[in-house]
Amino acid sequence: MGDMPHNRHGLIPMLVAIRVAAERKRRAAAAEAAAKDAPADKPKKKRGWFG
C-alpha cells in the first residue's frame, strides 16, 4: 500500500485513487511488453484519402 494518496479525504475517493493508480501501472506494463514484442518497422495504416 505504498501508493496511498495523501491528498484524498474519505474512504471511497482513496479506494478509487488506489484503483486508478493500479490500472495505470498495469497499462504501462502492458504497453512496455507490447512495445518489446512489436516490430519496429510497422507500416502506418492508411485512413481515407489523405493517408
Topology:
Elements (H helix, E strand, L loop, with lengths): L10 H27 L14
Output the keywords.
51 residues; mainly alpha; 1 helix; elongated
Beginning-to-end CA distance, first to last residue: 47 Å
Unreliable runs, pLDDT <50, ≥5 residues? Answer: none
The ordered string of helix (H) and strand (E) elements is H
Strand content: under 5%
Largest sheet: none
Can you give the mean pLDDT?
A: 79
Number of DSSP strands?
0
What is Rg? 18 Å
The general outline is elongated
Helices, by number, come to: 1
What is the oligomeric state here?
Answer: single chain
Pairing-aware structural class of the strands and helices?
mainly alpha
Percentage of residues assigned to helices: 40-55%
What does this structure look like?
The chain is mainly alpha-helical and 51 residues long. The chain has one helix at 11-37. The longest helix is centred in the middle third of the chain and has 27 residues, at 11-37. The radius of gyration is 18 Å and the shape is elongated. The protein starts with 10 loop residues before the first helix and ends in a 14-residue tail after the last helix.
Short description:
The chain has one helix spanning about 10-35. It has about 50 residues and is mostly helical.
